[in-house]
Design goal:
47% of the residues lie in helices and 18% in strands. By secondary structure, the chain is of the alpha+beta class. The chain has one domain: Orthogonal Bundle (Arc Repressor Mutant, subunit A). The chain has a three-stranded antiparallel sheet with strand order 2-3-4, with no helix packed on it. The protein has a two-stranded antiparallel ribbon with strand order 1-5.
Protein backbone atom coordinates (compact mmCIF):
# COMPACT_ATOMS: atom_id res chain seq x y z
CA UNK A 1 0.00 0.00 0.00
CA UNK A 2 1.21 3.51 -0.82
CA UNK A 3 0.29 6.89 0.57
CA UNK A 4 0.49 10.35 -0.94
CA UNK A 5 1.60 13.40 1.02
CA UNK A 6 -0.59 16.40 0.06
CA UNK A 7 1.20 19.32 -1.56
CA UNK A 8 -0.28 21.61 1.10
CA UNK A 9 1.89 19.89 3.75
CA UNK A 10 5.19 21.72 4.26
CA UNK A 11 7.95 19.81 6.05
CA UNK A 12 11.08 21.44 7.47
CA UNK A 13 14.42 19.68 7.93
CA UNK A 14 13.88 19.82 11.69
CA UNK A 15 10.62 17.81 11.44
CA UNK A 16 8.19 20.71 11.78
CA UNK A 17 5.04 20.17 9.69
CA UNK A 18 2.71 22.91 8.57
CA UNK A 19 -0.56 21.86 6.95
CA UNK A 20 -1.58 24.89 4.90
CA UNK A 21 -5.04 23.48 4.20
CA UNK A 22 -6.01 23.71 7.89
CA UNK A 23 -3.30 25.90 9.45
CA UNK A 24 -2.34 23.07 11.82
CA UNK A 25 1.25 22.42 12.86
CA UNK A 26 2.87 19.19 13.99
CA UNK A 27 6.32 18.08 15.10
CA UNK A 28 7.93 14.80 14.06
CA UNK A 29 10.80 12.91 15.61
CA UNK A 30 13.66 11.66 13.41
CA UNK A 31 11.94 8.39 12.47
CA UNK A 32 8.62 10.09 11.71
CA UNK A 33 10.45 12.54 9.47
CA UNK A 34 12.16 9.64 7.70
CA UNK A 35 8.85 7.83 7.15
CA UNK A 36 7.33 10.96 5.60
CA UNK A 37 10.39 11.39 3.37
CA UNK A 38 10.15 7.78 2.19
CA UNK A 39 6.44 8.25 1.47
CA UNK A 40 7.27 11.33 -0.58
CA UNK A 41 9.67 9.18 -2.60
CA UNK A 42 6.71 6.92 -3.43
CA UNK A 43 7.79 3.87 -1.44
CA UNK A 44 5.17 1.37 -0.33
CA UNK A 45 4.68 0.58 3.35
CA UNK A 46 6.42 -2.76 2.83
CA UNK A 47 9.47 -1.01 1.37
CA UNK A 48 9.44 1.57 4.18
CA UNK A 49 9.28 -1.24 6.76
CA UNK A 50 12.21 -3.03 5.15
CA UNK A 51 14.34 0.14 5.12
CA UNK A 52 13.55 0.94 8.76
CA UNK A 53 14.31 -2.61 9.93
CA UNK A 54 17.66 -2.44 8.10
CA UNK A 55 18.48 0.95 9.63
CA UNK A 56 17.23 0.67 13.22
CA UNK A 57 17.53 -1.97 15.92
CA UNK A 58 13.86 -2.97 15.97
CA UNK A 59 12.03 -6.23 15.49
CA UNK A 60 9.52 -6.54 12.67
CA UNK A 61 6.44 -6.95 14.90
CA UNK A 62 7.20 -3.78 16.88
CA UNK A 63 7.97 -1.84 13.72
CA UNK A 64 4.78 -2.94 12.00
CA UNK A 65 2.67 -1.92 15.01
CA UNK A 66 4.42 1.45 15.38
CA UNK A 67 4.22 2.16 11.65
CA UNK A 68 0.52 1.28 11.59
CA UNK A 69 -0.10 3.57 14.59
CA UNK A 70 1.83 6.41 12.92
CA UNK A 71 -0.08 6.03 9.62
CA UNK A 72 -3.36 5.98 11.55
CA UNK A 73 -2.46 9.29 13.20
CA UNK A 74 -1.48 10.80 9.84
CA UNK A 75 -4.80 9.68 8.37
CA UNK A 76 -6.74 11.02 11.35
CA UNK A 77 -5.27 14.48 10.70
CA UNK A 78 -5.62 14.04 6.91
CA UNK A 79 -1.85 14.40 6.43
CA UNK A 80 -1.69 11.44 4.02
CA UNK A 81 -3.94 10.17 1.29
CA UNK A 82 -4.13 6.50 0.38
CA UNK A 83 -3.25 5.76 -3.24
Amino acid sequence: MKYHIPESLAISDSGFLFFARTGETFTLNQIGKEIIRLMQEGLSLDSISTKLIETYDVDEITLQKDLHDFITQLQLHKLVEEQ
